[in-house]
Amino acid sequence: MPRTLSAALSASLLALAAAPAFAWDAHGHRVITYLALDGLPFADKPAKGDAAPAPIVTVPLWLSSPEIKDAVAYQCAEPDRIRAQPTPSLVHVNGPDHYLDLDMLPRWGMTIDTMPTLRHRFIKELTLARPKFPQNFTDYDPAKDAANENEWPGLGAQAVMEAYAGLQASFRTLKIIEIAGAEGRDLQIAQGRQNAVFYMGRLSHFVGDLAQPLHTTIHHHGWVRDVATFPDPATLPSTWNPNDYTTEYAFHAYIDGTILIHHQLTVESLTPTQKHERTVNDMDPWGDVLAHIKRSFAQVEPLYRMHKDDTLRGPEGKAFISERLHDGADMLRALIVAAWTSSDPVKRDLDYFTSGTPAAGQPSLPEMNTRRIPARTGTEAEQARKEAEERRKARSGGGAGKTPPPAPTPTPAPQP
Ligand SMILES: [Zn+2]
Fold first, then answer.
1. Measured between alpha carbons, how far is 134 from 73 in angstroms, rounded to an integer?
2. Cα of 373 to ligand 1 centre, how many Å?
3. 158 C-alpha vs ligand 1 centroid, how far in Å?
4. pLDDT in tens, 175-196
5. Residue 135 alpha carbon to ligand 1 centre in Å
């Protein structure tokens, strides 16, 4: 979670390293991951309690295995592990994915609601807008940003969408292999599941990061003078920090980890209060991702206030931090379920896969490499749902005299 490893932060991390209970930020990400995966709806076991009705939407049973959960829990911390590497190319492409400084967007004449969904379009619009507002960027010094990491307000929302789409694609491939027939495809199934684990890990990380309020604001490492609002360095703190919130850089690490240790927040302690109720638009969860970020951003000032009046360390603070972890987990679970329900393949997907990906023992022919598949359209996504439903009906023998197939996945209305 930490943005840059300053000397001050290094000192605080060293202090934290002595804490015996558990690691800090990786722990929080793991908690979110397990709380989400434990709430997934499986066909043969209700998500909550024996009395609960069987869920209408279900995900495949292999996602319930302890090995898969542990693998995702390992993978969910990987974006921070690679962030710790000093290679500029890696920092450049990975660093801004961990946050969105929502309150910085007006510098570019933009708001979260006008921010483009696509990464490169977003950067292009930021670049084009910047010359119009030179007074807003006097705090940015390219000479101090070798990896070109800090020029942007953050790409966390786009990173969530990309991980979601990657997971959707991995799930789709697994469904295709199931339709194509598993014979000779054990390796492909195993690797396909690993691909899904990879994307679930990334999705968990970035959803979790954005549930941490300090990952949504310019005040990410203590309250700062925003030069776009208060350009005069002589401005008194009473002007730009009227409530006298902490300006400590180490505040971020304190929220990332120390406070979780203080309240002993673990999977076990949080499981009884974890809700599994959020749903997202599975064909386009952009609006849901923005709502997730806005919920977190709304907690920025309350977080600073609770730190100032020291309620953060009491029961109120425990409930506050727990709510942020719960919200991250519920959002992650909803996105995983949505990636599954929206990943049905059309026949062309199946033809493309089987023609280019031979099962064990089948030859790889040159013409396989010439096949190309055009991008799918929204209409085809609906067609994919219909074809999947027909396959389900066919598998259940048409329904006559047999157990009825699961109800079709409800399709949420598109975001306005
Ligand atoms: Zn992070």
1. 43
2. 34
3. 14
4. 999 999 888 999 999 999 999 9
5. 30
pLDDT digits (tens, 9 = 90+) for 46-102: 555 555 666 678 899 999 999 999 999 999 999 999 888 889 999 999 999 999 999
Q: With contact defined as beta carbons under 8 Å apart, do 356 and 301 qualify?
A: no
CA 80 – ligand 1 centroid, Å: 5
Distance 107 CA to ligand 1 centre (A): 24
The CATH T-level fold of domain 7-139+151-231+251-338 is P1 Nuclease (1.10.575)
Ligand 1 centroid distance, CA of 293 (Å): 14
Q: In this structure, what token pair is assigned to residue 338?
A: 């949505």
pTM, whole model, 2 decimals?
Answer: 0.85
Would you kindly state where each structural domain of the chain is located, as residue ranges? 7-139+151-231+251-338
Distance 40 CA to ligand 1 centre (A): 23
* Residue in the structure block whose two tokens are 């603070």: 317
- Tell how far the Cα of 206 is from the centroid of ligand 1, in angstroms: 6
Q: Please provide the size of the chain in residues.
A: 416
